[in-house]
Every structure is written in structure tokens, then in C-alpha cells.
């Protein structure tokens, strides 16, 4: 049931207003390749474009920032300096968040917000300056990357510096689609910092429009458009959904076994659907707590001059060769207003600019719709002051907040909320009402890919209840989308028989690699297929359904943990156990469930793990069990007494990498927790063994504080490490750039900028994107693919020759490395497409891979 007349929701391509399709909602696929090192998936929507043979355009090049007052591009030095200051501010905010957490005894989610904390930092810095006038000191994180300038500090910032700094604020507001003072200080970038969160690989735009993916997905499905859902009544094993009739003939009621609610969080917040009975408090509180913001776009199309040029390609501030450029603003209150423009001429070839409105500006935009185009023109005329800027021939302004079917743009972690809220929003109510949508997918919220994955998750969980065979298919689909699959077998995988086709390249005969390939091939992934799945064939299906219901009811009623044993003992099916473990993970922190589990039921949990450890399709369940164990702060003693230690050691040997990683982390955590006896000893040594229970309480807090201190130290160390690695990477990158003849190659983006670079990456720019008349579609051309391959392989060989000459590798290794490096590129979607394949970015990647493999050899 779809309220609008069209499918796609916040993915909306306008095909009428402009000469090319333009995306008014989502427009960037934020990662098209799994990053096995970070455990990141690729955005599944990229697969659809690949399958449809539709062109995507990688976001490349710098994003120069222009100063609104000086009407000129800010220098590279200043850009770096202020980016360093902003990183310093982020560091200070991280420390503040940790301090707040320590002050609360390590419990609870801080209500502190990002904006106010930054303000306070500035105020205290300024007060210090006015108070003692002492010499300006270096501040942590405000690094001078050039190495010549003096490290800057907040107290030294000029008005121009501040304008650039505010641009970074606007960029953060854009990434979160929220005002700075709404964003959680502690968890604002949980979708970047948590393990496996975020998508991997380059970001791309879709010249033919993102809606193509949604339309193709809905093709052949029975979607009832103009069916606005008004009420959901649930209970007695069924749901009744009331919705408007597409023919405006009053409301109708549809009865079903189960329902998946996928309306945006903005609609849930406004209670656009009446639930009967009302949603339980735990769900409603979560809906209220998690943030949901706004972002708007102003799209302007201009007429090309006779020579094919447009004004932004001319004059002293020409930006014709970049895909995006930033603008500072004179005042703080307007810093999100047109802080960035996308140059769509580089994406689709048409003379179109898209201005972004973030933070407060996104909200204001909805009230001053008719003023926005003149405002945008004012900004552009100010910037391109030495050329004629004509009036646009077409324009369009979005208003996502006023849209009754979205009420805003996307979710963010608001002050007082945390990543856990995404998990709780994903939980069903009464096992009848399920929830999906970007706001229910913790690892990739606010993305199209996250929304898609959440849909698959709910399909999987409902099918598990109603249909056994189909469920396994969905299970397998989910597994395929998992980046850990690449970890298991992607590394050394063979291509599609290129060795036979490519005479030029010798066959790989390095026994070392051969052996590895064989070993991997022997791993039968087909075992995951339907038929042998124990919980589907053995367990009574109705019972599984009943068990899930019992688990949800138990947790919803918030019963005490005393009858935990009874509940756990009654669960026989994998589904019941899975539901139990998931509920404990999602809710355990806020209740005493975890304590009870740790005290009495670890043995039972161990037996569950043993029962399903070797069963197919149970990896996710095993992972969840280990995640739960990780939450329990176990000691070595617990592991021994319950035989969990032995189980974990076994798992570490025989399970997929995903499980191994979790087990390793668990074992590390366990050995880091000092045994109770040691703690007692410490206490008696410090002479307070006779403390009363009450007197002991602050002691625990002290421990927490100590732990947090250690954590802070650890974070500092890691940051240092990351900074060092980044520096190294920059050097290597420059070196690589020099090797491939691009002396002024842009630096790779700092890892700290990820969230802010959320919707675009900043890699080295390449070719022009003009002249594509195919409506964005391009199919793989085999001949072209062969040419691309030849180009690449000879490039790899040329680079490797040096190492061969110097004796760093022998002939066999030479061949093997050529094959391995090519193996990493041969499945890239742009192979065989009518565009440059061996881009500077890719050359850089090749150099990096070669160095890696040569070092390994
Ligand atoms: C301006 C903007 C830019 C963005 N940029 C990006 C980007 O570059 N990359 C990216 O990955 N993501 C981006 N996003 C976010 C992305 O669009 C969303 O995360 C994603 O589309 C959410 O999908 P969903 O299915 O959860 O919700 P939606 O796409 O909103 O789908 C919900 C559906 O429910 C329907 N509905 C609502 N209420 C009712 C009702 N009562 N009855 C029946 N139907 C109802 C709606 O019409 C809609 O079709 C952007 C979003 C916006 C607004």
C-alpha cells in the first residue's frame, strides 16, 4: 500500500522539468564495493544498476571552497588548516563526550548535543584569551599538515577562518540532515565509527536517475498506489489495515496475517497511522527519541552559450572541472544556505546546478519557497562576479518537510538517542506488526541501501514464520549481500577465465596462490541451500511461531528476569532462540536481564551455540550469541565454569571469518577484565575491605572512571595511529601520483571527514562527462572490455618491472601479482563501458595493491 501515486518514496527523479533526469531526493549511492578490511558491505542498490546495465558516475575531484566575502577560492593551505581545526574540535568533543560518560558512571546516553558543546568550547577559549592574554598554545588536533605553518588554535581564528569553519558545520548538518544543536555529541557518527557500519567503495551518482532502481524493483509487483494507510489494528493473530481507496470511494479495510510498516520516521513521529492498541511505550519512546531531519535542494538549469560553455566554466572563479564546490556564508545563521553546489554538467552533461540547503536553512526554505531561486542566483552572481550570469531557464525547489508522505529527509542520532534506538525501532510489536525503512537499519541508516536491507530483513523474518522454503532463499540473499562473504572467499577468487583469453599474460602457476585457491574452492557454499536446514525441517513450524510470540510478549510485558529459566527452557526452535537473543541484545542494557543471564543461564546459552554452530544458515544466530556474550562483561572464570571458553576456541577455528572476528574480540575482552578475586585483593590491599555495601558504591564508579580513562587513552592512541597512517597514506598517494605523472594529485580524504563527506567522496578528478546522449544507460561492450583489460595489464606490468629488475620478486611472483591485481579490477562496473577505465584513481589503487603484494612476496 503506497500513499503516493508513484513508488520510490524519498527516491524521486524529476523527468519533466529539466533536459535530463534530476534526483530531487536521494541521488548518491554511498559505496559500490565491499570493503573487507572494514567489514563494510556495498550498497545493494548499486547491484540493481549493474544488473540493468545503467551507467553510474563516480564522484571524483576536489570540492573547492569559495569565500562569500572575498569572492575567491580559499587557498589549499587555509583549507587544510581549517579542516585540521575542525578535526581538533571533533577530538575535543569526543573527549567531552567521554568525560560526560565518566561523570555518569559510564551509564546512560548523554543528552549533550554537538552544537552547544562546540559553542561552549569557543566561549571558554575566548574567555581564556581575554582573561590572561597568554601566548597562544598548540591545540590538540589542530594540526598543520604542511609542516611549515604554526599549528593554529581556536583563539587565533580570523573572521575568514571562522567562515570556513562554519562551512564544515554546514557540511556536518548536511551529513546528518539536522541542526548542529540537535545532534548527539556522543553518537552522532555511529554509522561510520561502529564495526562494519557504512558502505564500502566509491560513491557514485546515477545520471539516468535513481528512481530507475525503485521502478525496476516494483515492476510486476502488485503495489496499490494512492492507498494511504490510516490505521493498523492488531491482535488475535491478525492485522487489519485501514487505508484510503485509490478511487476516492471512502476507506477500505484489508485483513492480513502480518504487516510491515515502512513509512518514514517523520510520519511515525507525527502519528500519521493510528495503531490499535497503541504502540507500546518502548517503541513510542524510541520513535520520539531518534532524530529525523530535513534537507532541501534548489535545482537550476541554464542555457548553454553557442560555444557550449556555461558561466561557471568561465571567469576568475571557474569551477568547470569539478563536480561540486562549496560556499561560505557571511553569517552563522545562514551557513547551511547554498553551502554547496553540485555541477551536474560533469554528471549528466546538461548545464544544471543543484544548490543544497542544510541545517536551519533547510527548514527556512520551506517557508520562503518563492525567494529561494533569487537567493541562489544572488549567491552565484556574487561568486561569478566577473562573468554574466543569466536567469535560469528551468528551476525546481524541494520541500521534503512539508511532504505529507515523508515529513523530512532522513534519520539521525539526536541528543539523548543512540545507535541502539535503530535496533529497537527494527523490533516487531506482537510479532504481527513489523518495521522496516532506513530508520530501522543501524549500520547504514539514512541511505537507500539501508532501507533495502531492512526490507529484506523483515521479509526474512516474516517468511520464517509463514513459509519455510522461501525463507532460506532470502537467507541466502542476505548472506550474499554480506561483505564477510568477500572475506571468506573473495580475496583470491579467480576471474572468468581471463587467462585463457589473454595471451599476453602468462598463466598463474605460483603454487602458493594455487593452493590457496584450491582450499577456498573446496569450501562448499552450496551447503547453504534449502533442505538441510535443521530448524526448518525439524522444528514444528507452528511451535516456532508460538515461541517467537512468547518471546516478544515476555519482553514487551517487561517481566522480571526470575522466570528467564522457564522461558529459555521452553524455546526449542532456532527462531525462538534467535528472537530471545536479539531481544536481550536490544533491551538488555536498560534492564537487569543481562545480570540474570550472566549469573544463571550461561550454560544454557552455551548449549544453544553448540547446537547450531555447525548447522547451515545459522551464522547470524551464532554471531548474535557472541554479541550478547560481549555485552555481559564475562570473566575467565565464567568462561571456564560454563565451558564457553572451549566452545569459543572451537568456533575460532572452524567458523566463518565474521564469527572468528567476534570471538577474538570476546576473548580479548574477557582476558582484559581482571578476575573478581584480583579485584577483591586490590580492595583489601588498599585497606577498605570492611566497607559497607553503600560505601562500596563509589568504588565501582571509580573503577568505571578508571576504565573510561583507559578508554580515552586508548582512543587517543588510536587517533594518533590513525593520523600517522593517514600521513603515511598521503605520502604513498603522492608517491603513486608522481609515478603516474600527476604531480598535483589531490590528497585522499582524511578518515575523520567521512561523515561530513557522507554524500560525496573527494578523490582525484578525471575526465569530462559531457556528450553522453544515451539517457544514462550504457551496456558492457566486450571489445572495449578487452581493451580496458589490456591497458590495465600492461600498466600493471610496467610498474612491476622495476621490482623484478631489483630482484624484489621473481618471475613467478611477477605473474602471480599481475593476475592478482587484475583480479581486483576485473569486476568493476565500469569495465567495458564507454568511459575511461584506467583513471588516475584506479592507477593509484593499482600502485597500492602492487606495493602490498610485493611486500607480501
Ligand atoms: C533530499 C534527500 C537527499 C537524500 N540523499 C541521499 C543519498 O544521496 N543517498 C542515499 O542513500 N540516501 C539519501 N537520502 C535518504 C534516502 O532517500 C532514504 O534513506 C531512503 O529513500 C528511505 O527509504 P524508505 O523506504 O525507508 O522510506 P521512503 O523512501 O520514504 O518510503 C516510504 C514510503 O511510504 C509511503 N508512505 C508514507 N506514509 C504512508 C501512508 N500513511 N500510507 C501509505 N504509504 C505511505 C511513502 O509515500 C513512501 O513511498 C536522501 C533523502 C532526501 C530527502
UniProtKB/TrEMBL annotation:
Which Pfam families does the entry mention? Amino_oxidase
Q: Which family does it belong to?
A: Belongs to the flavin monoamine oxidase family.
Organism's domain of life?
Eukaryota
User: Where are the compositionally biased (Basic residues) regions?
Assistant: 517-526
Q: Where is this region: Disordered?
A: 126-148, 485-526, 676-706, 717-736, 742-787
Name of this chain's protein: Amine oxidase domain-containing protein
Q: Where is the composition biased (Acidic residues)?
A: 488-504
Composition skew (Basic and acidic residues), residue ranges: 126-142, 505-516, 717-735, 761-787
Give the GO molecular function terms: oxidoreductase activity
Give residue ranges for domain Amine oxidase.
Answer: 2-463
Amino acid at each position: 500500500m503506497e500513499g503516493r501515486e508513484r513508488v520510490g518514496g524519498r527516491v524521486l527523479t524529476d523527468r519533466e522539468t529539466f533536459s535530463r533526469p534530476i534526483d530531487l531526493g536521494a541521488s548518491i549511492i554511498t559505496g559500490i564495493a565491499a570493503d573487507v578490511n572494514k567489514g563494510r558491505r556495498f550498497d545493494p542498490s548499486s547491484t540493481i544498476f549493474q544488473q540493468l546495465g545503467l551507467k553510474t558516475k563516480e564522484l571524483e575531484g576536489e570540492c573547492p571552497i569559495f569565500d562569500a566575502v572575498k569572492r575567491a577560492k580559499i587557498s589549499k593551505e587555509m583549507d587544510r588548516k581549517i579542516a585540521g581545526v575542525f578535526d581538533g574540535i571533533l577530538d575535543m568533543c569526543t573527549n567531552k563526550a567521554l568525560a560526560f560518560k565518566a561523570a555518569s558512571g559510564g551509564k546512560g546516553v548523554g543528552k549533550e548535543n554537538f552544537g552547544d558543546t562546540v559553542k561552549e568550547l569557543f566561549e571558554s577559549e575566548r574567555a581564556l584569551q581575554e582573561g590572561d592574554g597568554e601566548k597562544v598554545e598548540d591545540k590538540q588536533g589542530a594540526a598543520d599538515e604542511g609542516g611549515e605553518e604554526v599549528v593554529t588554535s581556536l583563539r587565533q581564528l580570523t573572521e575568514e577562518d571562522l567562515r570556513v569553519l562554519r562551512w564544515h558545520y554546514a557540511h556536518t548538518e548536511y551529513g546528518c540532515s539536522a541542526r548542529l544543536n540537535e545532534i548527539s555529541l556522543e553518537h552522532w557518527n555511529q554509522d561510520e565509527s561502529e564495526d562494519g557500519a557504512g558502505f564500502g567503495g566509491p560513491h557514485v551518482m546515477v545520471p539516468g536517475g535513481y528512481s530507475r532502481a525503485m521502478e525496476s524493483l516494483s515492476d510486476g509487483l502488485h503495489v496499490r498506489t494512492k492507498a494511504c494507510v490510516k490505521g493498523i489494528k492488531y491482535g488475535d493473530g491478525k492485522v487489519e489495515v485501514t487505508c484510503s481507496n485509490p478511487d476516492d470511494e471512502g476507506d477500505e479495510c484489508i485483513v492480513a496475517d502480518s504487516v510491515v510498516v515502512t513509512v518514514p520516521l517523520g510520519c511515525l513521529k507525527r502519528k500519521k497511522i493510528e495503531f490499535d492498541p497503541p504502540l507500546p511505550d518502548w517503541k513510542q519512546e524510541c520513535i520520539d527519541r531518534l532524530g529525523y531531519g530535513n534537507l532541501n535542494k534548489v535545482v537550476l538549469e541554464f542555457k548553454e552559450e553557442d560555444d557550449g560553455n556555461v558561466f561557471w566554466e568561465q571567469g576568475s572563479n571557474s569551477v568547470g572541472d569539478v563536480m561540486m564546490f562549496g560556499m561560505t556564508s557571511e553569517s552563522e545563521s545562514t551557513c547551511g544556505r547554498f553551502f554547496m553546489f553540485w555541477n551536474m554538467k560533469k554528471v549528466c552533461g546538461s548545464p544544471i546546478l543543484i544548490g543544497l540547503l542544510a541545517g536551519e536553512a533547510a527548514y527556512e526554505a520551506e517557508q520562503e519557497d518563492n525567494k529561494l531561486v533569487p537567493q541562489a542566483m544572488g549567491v552565484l552572481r556574487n561568486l561569478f562576479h566577473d562573468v554574466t550570469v543569466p536567469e535560469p531557464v528551468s528551476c525546481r525547489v524541494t520541500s521534503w518537510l512539508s511532504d505529507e508522505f515523508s515529513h523530512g529527509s532522513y534519520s539521525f542520532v539526536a541528543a539523548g538517542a543512540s545507535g541502539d534506538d535503530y535496533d529497537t525501532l527494527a523490533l516487531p510489536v506482537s510479532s504481527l506488526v513489523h518495521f522496516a525503512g532506513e530508520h530501522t537499519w543501524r549500520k547504514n541508516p539514512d541511505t537507500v541501501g539501508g532501507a533495502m536491507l531492512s526490507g529484506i530483513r523483515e521479509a526474512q523474518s516474516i517468511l520464517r514464520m509463514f513459509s519455510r522454503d522461501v525463507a532460506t532463499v532470502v537467507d541466502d540473499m542476505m548472506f550474499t549481500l554480506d561483505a564477510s562473504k568477500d572475506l571468506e572467499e573473495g580475496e583470491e577468487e579467480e576471474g572468468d577465465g581471463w587467462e585463457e583469453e589473454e595471451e599476453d599474460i602468462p598463466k598463474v602457476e605460483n603454487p602458493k596462490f594455487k593452493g590457496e585457491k584450491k582450499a577456498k574452492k573446496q569450501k562448499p557454499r552450496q551447503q547453504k541451500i534449502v533442505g538441510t536446514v535443521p530448524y526448518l525441517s525439524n522444528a514444528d513450524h507452528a511451535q516456532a511461531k508460538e515461541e517467537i510470540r512468547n518471546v516478544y510478549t515476555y519482553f514487551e510485558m517487561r517481566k522480571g528476569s526470575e522466570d528467564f529459566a522457564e522461558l529459555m527452557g521452553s524455546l526449542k526452535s532456532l527462531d525462538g532462540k534467535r528472537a530471545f537473543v536479539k531481544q536481550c541484545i536490544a533491551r538488555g542494557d536498560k534492564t537487569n536481564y543481562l545480570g540474570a543471564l550472566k549469573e544463571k543461564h550461561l550454560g544454557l546459552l552455551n548449549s544453544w551455540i553448540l547446537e547450531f554452530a555447525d548447522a547451515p544458515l545459522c551464522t547470524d544466530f551464532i554471531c548474535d550469541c557472541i554479541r550478547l556474550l560481549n555485552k555481559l562483561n564475562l570473566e575467565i572464570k565464567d568462561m571456564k565454569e560454563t565451558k564457553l571458553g572451549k566452545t569459543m576456541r572451537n568456533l575460532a577455528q572452524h567458523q566463518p571469518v565474521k564469527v572468528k572476528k567476534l570471538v577474538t574480540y570476546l576473548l580479548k575482552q574477557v582476558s582484559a577484565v581482571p578476575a573478581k578475586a584480583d579485584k577483591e585483593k586490590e580492595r583489601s590491599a588498599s585497606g577498605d575491605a570492611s566497607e559497607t555495601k553503600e560505601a562500596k558504591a563509589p568504588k565501582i564508579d571509580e573503577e568505571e572512571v578508571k576504565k573510561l580513562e583507559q578508554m580515552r587513552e586508548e582512543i587517543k592512541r588510536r587517533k594518533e595511529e590513525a593520523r600517522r597512517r593517514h600521513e603515511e597514506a598521503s605520502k604513498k598517494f603522492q608517491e603513486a601520483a608522481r609515478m603516474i605523472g600527476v604531480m598535483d594529485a589531490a590528497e585522499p580524504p582524511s578518515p575523520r571527514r567521512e561523515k561530513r563527506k557522507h554524500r560525496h567522496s573527494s578523490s582525484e578528478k578525471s575526465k569530462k562527462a559531457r556528450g553522453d546522449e544515451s539517457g544514462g544507460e550504457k551496456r558492457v561492450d566486450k571489445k572495449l572490455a578487452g581493451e580496458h583489460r589490456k591497458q590495465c595489464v600492461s600498466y600493471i606490468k610496467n610498474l612491476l618491472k622495476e621490482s623484478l629488475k631489483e630482484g624484489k620478486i621473481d618471475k613467478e611472483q611477477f605473474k602471480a601479482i599481475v593476475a592478482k591485481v587484475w583480479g581486483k579490477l576485473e569486476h568493476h562496473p565500469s569495465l567495458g563501458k564507454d568511459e575511461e577505465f584506467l583513471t588516475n584513481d584506479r592507477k593509484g589503487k593499482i600502485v597500492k595493491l602492487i606495493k602490498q603484494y610485493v611486500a607480501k612476496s
